[in-house]
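Try this one yourself first.
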Protein backbone atom coordinates (compact mmCIF):
# COMPACT_ATOMS: atom_id res chain seq x y z
CA UNK A 1 0.00 0.00 0.00
CA UNK A 2 1.04 3.60 -0.48
CA UNK A 3 2.42 5.81 2.29
CA UNK A 4 -0.12 7.62 4.49
CA UNK A 5 -0.84 11.19 3.47
CA UNK A 6 -1.03 14.52 5.27
CA UNK A 7 -0.46 18.26 5.08
CA UNK A 8 3.28 18.96 5.42
CA UNK A 9 3.66 16.56 8.29
CA UNK A 10 5.68 13.51 9.20
CA UNK A 11 4.64 10.29 7.53
CA UNK A 12 5.60 6.65 7.80
CA UNK A 13 6.79 4.88 4.67
CA UNK A 14 7.45 1.13 4.62
CA UNK A 15 10.26 0.99 2.08
CA UNK A 16 13.91 0.17 1.58
CA UNK A 17 17.23 1.96 1.74
CA UNK A 18 20.55 0.28 1.08
CA UNK A 19 23.38 0.18 3.59
CA UNK A 20 26.64 -0.58 1.74
CA UNK A 21 27.71 -2.90 4.54
CA UNK A 22 24.41 -4.57 5.37
CA UNK A 23 22.44 -4.45 2.12
CA UNK A 24 18.75 -3.47 1.81
CA UNK A 25 16.84 -2.92 5.01
CA UNK A 26 13.21 -2.01 5.60
CA UNK A 27 12.81 1.37 7.26
CA UNK A 28 10.14 3.70 8.57
CA UNK A 29 10.93 7.27 7.58
CA UNK A 30 9.47 10.23 9.48
CA UNK A 31 10.32 13.19 7.30
CA UNK A 32 8.35 16.44 6.89
CA UNK A 33 8.10 17.38 3.23
CA UNK A 34 5.83 19.38 0.90
CA UNK A 35 5.63 16.78 -1.85
CA UNK A 36 6.09 13.12 -2.59
CA UNK A 37 7.60 12.23 -5.93
CA UNK A 38 7.04 8.77 -7.41
CA UNK A 39 9.24 7.52 -10.23
CA UNK A 40 9.44 4.49 -12.48
CA UNK A 41 11.41 3.64 -15.60
CA UNK A 42 10.94 2.31 -19.10
CA UNK A 43 13.16 1.62 -22.08
CA UNK A 44 14.56 -0.93 -24.47
CA UNK A 45 18.03 -2.45 -24.53
CA UNK A 46 17.83 -2.86 -28.32
CA UNK A 47 17.51 0.89 -28.90
CA UNK A 48 19.69 1.90 -25.94
CA UNK A 49 16.93 4.19 -24.68
CA UNK A 50 16.33 4.49 -20.94
CA UNK A 51 13.54 6.63 -19.48
CA UNK A 52 12.58 7.82 -16.03
CA UNK A 53 9.27 9.54 -15.40
CA UNK A 54 8.15 11.08 -12.13
CA UNK A 55 4.85 12.22 -10.65
CA UNK A 56 5.24 14.99 -8.09
CA UNK A 57 2.21 15.60 -5.88
CA UNK A 58 1.53 17.84 -2.87
CA UNK A 59 1.13 15.49 0.08
CA UNK A 60 -2.22 17.06 0.93
CA UNK A 61 -3.65 15.94 -2.42
CA UNK A 62 -2.56 12.30 -2.41
CA UNK A 63 -5.72 11.04 -0.72
CA UNK A 64 -7.90 12.80 -3.33
CA UNK A 65 -5.97 11.16 -6.15
CA UNK A 66 -6.19 7.76 -4.47
CA UNK A 67 -9.97 8.08 -4.19
CA UNK A 68 -10.29 8.92 -7.89
CA UNK A 69 -7.83 6.22 -8.95
CA UNK A 70 -9.57 3.56 -6.85
CA UNK A 71 -12.96 4.61 -8.21
CA UNK A 72 -11.57 4.23 -11.72
CA UNK A 73 -10.16 0.80 -10.89
CA UNK A 74 -13.57 -0.21 -9.51
CA UNK A 75 -15.08 0.66 -12.89
CA UNK A 76 -12.42 -1.43 -14.62
CA UNK A 77 -13.48 -4.38 -12.50
CA UNK A 78 -17.16 -3.75 -13.14
CA UNK A 79 -16.88 -3.20 -16.89
CA UNK A 80 -13.81 -5.22 -17.90
CA UNK A 81 -13.28 -7.78 -15.14
CA UNK A 82 -9.88 -6.39 -14.10
CA UNK A 83 -9.55 -6.75 -10.30
CA UNK A 84 -8.90 -3.58 -8.36
CA UNK A 85 -5.72 -5.06 -6.87
CA UNK A 86 -4.31 -6.24 -10.20
CA UNK A 87 -0.90 -4.59 -10.71
CA UNK A 88 -0.87 -2.27 -13.70
CA UNK A 89 2.36 -2.99 -15.56
CA UNK A 90 2.00 -1.02 -18.78
CA UNK A 91 4.27 -3.02 -21.09
CA UNK A 92 2.41 -6.24 -20.36
CA UNK A 93 -1.03 -4.71 -19.99
CA UNK A 94 -1.06 -2.67 -23.20
CA UNK A 95 0.44 -5.43 -25.33
CA UNK A 96 -2.26 -7.89 -24.29
CA UNK A 97 -0.20 -10.01 -21.92
CA UNK A 98 -1.62 -11.54 -18.76
CA UNK A 99 -5.13 -12.55 -17.80
CA UNK A 100 -6.25 -10.21 -14.99
CA UNK A 101 -8.93 -11.88 -12.94
CA UNK A 102 -8.77 -14.91 -15.23
CA UNK A 103 -10.14 -12.85 -18.12
CA UNK A 104 -8.27 -11.52 -21.14
CA UNK A 105 -9.62 -8.06 -22.06
CA UNK A 106 -9.15 -7.11 -25.69
CA UNK A 107 -6.37 -4.69 -26.62
CA UNK A 108 -9.02 -2.08 -27.40
CA UNK A 109 -10.43 -2.46 -23.87
CA UNK A 110 -6.97 -2.23 -22.35
CA UNK A 111 -6.23 0.94 -24.30
CA UNK A 112 -9.48 2.53 -23.14
CA UNK A 113 -8.59 1.75 -19.53
CA UNK A 114 -5.08 3.17 -19.91
CA UNK A 115 -6.37 6.35 -21.56
CA UNK A 116 -8.78 6.83 -18.67
CA UNK A 117 -5.90 6.53 -16.21
CA UNK A 118 -3.83 9.03 -18.21
CA UNK A 119 -6.76 11.45 -18.29
CA UNK A 120 -6.87 11.33 -14.49
CA UNK A 121 -3.11 11.88 -14.17
CA UNK A 122 -3.06 14.68 -16.73
CA UNK A 123 -5.97 16.62 -15.23
CA UNK A 124 -5.24 16.16 -11.53
CA UNK A 125 -4.59 19.52 -9.79
CA UNK A 126 -1.08 20.14 -8.52
CA UNK A 127 0.39 16.99 -10.04
CA UNK A 128 3.58 17.63 -12.03
CA UNK A 129 4.89 15.13 -14.59
CA UNK A 130 8.60 15.04 -15.49
CA UNK A 131 10.30 12.68 -17.94
CA UNK A 132 13.99 12.40 -18.79
CA UNK A 133 15.77 9.90 -21.00
CA UNK A 134 19.22 8.93 -22.19
CA UNK A 135 20.48 6.72 -24.99
CA UNK A 136 23.70 4.73 -25.32
CA UNK A 137 25.21 1.37 -26.11
CA UNK A 138 25.81 0.79 -22.39
CA UNK A 139 22.26 0.46 -21.07
CA UNK A 140 23.36 0.77 -17.45
CA UNK A 141 25.19 4.02 -18.21
CA UNK A 142 22.11 5.29 -20.05
CA UNK A 143 19.96 4.37 -17.04
CA UNK A 144 22.29 6.25 -14.70
CA UNK A 145 22.36 9.32 -16.95
CA UNK A 146 18.56 9.37 -17.26
CA UNK A 147 18.01 9.07 -13.52
CA UNK A 148 20.63 11.72 -12.78
CA UNK A 149 18.93 14.05 -15.26
CA UNK A 150 15.59 13.42 -13.59
CA UNK A 151 16.94 14.16 -10.10
CA UNK A 152 18.52 17.42 -11.32
CA UNK A 153 15.28 18.53 -13.01
CA UNK A 154 13.17 17.66 -9.98
CA UNK A 155 15.52 19.38 -7.55
CA UNK A 156 15.73 22.50 -9.71
CA UNK A 157 11.97 22.91 -9.72
CA UNK A 158 11.69 22.28 -5.98
CA UNK A 159 14.35 24.90 -5.25
CA UNK A 160 12.60 27.41 -7.51
CA UNK A 161 9.27 26.75 -5.75
CA UNK A 162 10.82 26.77 -2.24
CA UNK A 163 9.56 23.24 -1.58
CA UNK A 164 11.01 19.98 -0.36
CA UNK A 165 10.15 16.44 -1.40
CA UNK A 166 10.86 12.80 -0.81
CA UNK A 167 11.54 10.62 -3.85
CA UNK A 168 10.13 7.08 -4.03
CA UNK A 169 11.20 4.70 -6.79
CA UNK A 170 10.12 1.21 -7.83
CA UNK A 171 12.49 -1.27 -6.21
CA UNK A 172 13.19 -3.81 -3.50
CA UNK A 173 16.24 -2.10 -2.02
CA UNK A 174 18.87 -4.04 -3.97
CA UNK A 175 19.69 -1.49 -6.67
CA UNK A 176 22.52 0.81 -5.54
CA UNK A 177 22.13 3.14 -8.54
CA UNK A 178 19.60 5.39 -6.83
CA UNK A 179 21.65 5.99 -3.72
CA UNK A 180 24.84 6.45 -5.74
CA UNK A 181 23.31 9.06 -8.05
CA UNK A 182 21.80 10.87 -5.09
CA UNK A 183 25.18 10.96 -3.39
CA UNK A 184 26.89 12.29 -6.51
CA UNK A 185 24.35 15.05 -7.17
CA UNK A 186 23.57 15.98 -3.56
CA UNK A 187 20.20 17.61 -4.36
CA UNK A 188 19.21 20.54 -2.19
CA UNK A 189 15.47 19.90 -1.81
CA UNK A 190 15.08 16.13 -2.15
CA UNK A 191 15.28 14.73 1.37
CA UNK A 192 17.43 11.65 1.92
CA UNK A 193 18.37 8.98 -0.62
CA UNK A 194 15.41 7.73 -2.68
CA UNK A 195 13.19 5.16 -1.03
CA UNK A 196 12.60 1.92 -2.90
CA UNK A 197 9.07 0.53 -2.76
CA UNK A 198 7.71 -2.42 -4.78
CA UNK A 199 5.28 -1.18 -7.44
CA UNK A 200 2.61 -3.72 -6.54
CA UNK A 201 2.23 -1.87 -3.22
CA UNK A 202 1.80 1.58 -4.76
CA UNK A 203 -0.86 2.97 -7.06
CA UNK A 204 1.46 5.94 -7.60
CA UNK A 205 4.32 3.83 -8.91
CA UNK A 206 1.92 2.02 -11.21
CA UNK A 207 0.72 5.41 -12.49
CA UNK A 208 4.36 6.49 -12.98
CA UNK A 209 5.02 3.27 -14.89
CA UNK A 210 2.20 4.12 -17.32
CA UNK A 211 3.60 7.62 -17.83
CA UNK A 212 7.14 6.30 -18.37
CA UNK A 213 5.92 3.78 -20.93
CA UNK A 214 4.05 6.48 -22.86
CA UNK A 215 7.07 8.80 -22.69
CA UNK A 216 9.22 6.01 -24.11
CA UNK A 217 6.79 5.32 -26.94
CA UNK A 218 6.60 9.03 -27.80
CA UNK A 219 10.33 8.99 -28.54
CA UNK A 220 11.13 5.47 -29.77
CA UNK A 221 8.08 5.35 -32.13
CA UNK A 222 7.96 1.64 -32.80
CA UNK A 223 5.93 0.96 -35.93
CA UNK A 224 3.86 -1.60 -34.02
CA UNK A 225 2.89 1.03 -31.43
CA UNK A 226 1.73 3.87 -33.67
CA UNK A 227 -1.40 4.31 -31.56
CA UNK A 228 0.81 5.23 -28.57
CA UNK A 229 3.02 7.81 -30.24
CA UNK A 230 0.91 10.83 -29.22
CA UNK A 231 -0.51 9.62 -25.91
CA UNK A 232 2.04 11.47 -23.80
CA UNK A 233 1.35 14.80 -25.51
CA UNK A 234 -2.41 14.27 -25.82
CA UNK A 235 -3.27 13.01 -22.35
CA UNK A 236 -0.61 14.85 -20.34
CA UNK A 237 -0.95 18.34 -21.85
CA UNK A 238 0.59 20.12 -18.84
CA UNK A 239 3.74 17.99 -18.93
CA UNK A 240 6.91 19.21 -20.60
CA UNK A 241 8.08 16.91 -23.43
CA UNK A 242 10.54 14.18 -22.43
CA UNK A 243 14.01 15.71 -22.19
CA UNK A 244 17.25 14.01 -23.20
CA UNK A 245 19.78 14.12 -20.38
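Now uncover the answer:
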Amino acid sequence: MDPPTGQRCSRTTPAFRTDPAKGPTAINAHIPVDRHIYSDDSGDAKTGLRFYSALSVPIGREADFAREWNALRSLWEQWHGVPTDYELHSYKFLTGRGRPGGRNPSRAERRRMARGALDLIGAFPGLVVTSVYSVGTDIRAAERAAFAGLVRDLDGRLVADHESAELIVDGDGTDRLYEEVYGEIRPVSIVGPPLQLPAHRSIWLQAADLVAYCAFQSVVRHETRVHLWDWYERYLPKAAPPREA
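Discussion: The beta strands are 14-19, 23-28, 35-44, 49-58, 128-135, 165-170, 195-197, 243-244. The longest strand covers residues 35-44.
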